[in-house]
Specification:
mainly alpha, 66% helix, 58 residues
């Protein structure tokens, strides 16, 4: 399937849409938009490692 849509622009539109949707959930006070547990160094490290590995393998 070939189109003339720029993949970077399409990804930017998806990211902006997701950011707006999550912001609306957060600022309207929806309970499911808030984290149940505060972030700590262990969770941050696992997330950073996952992102680094995904970046390196891509």
């Amino acid at each position: 399937m070939q189109t003339n849509i720029d993949p970077v622009a399409a990804s930017a539109i998806r990211m902006i849409t997701a950011f707006v949707a999550h912001s609306l959930f957060l600022f309207t006070g929806a309970k499911h938009a808030k984290s149940l547990n505060p972030i700590n160094w262990s969770i941050f490290g696992i997330t950073a490692l996952n992102g680094f590995l995904a970046w390196q393998l891509a």
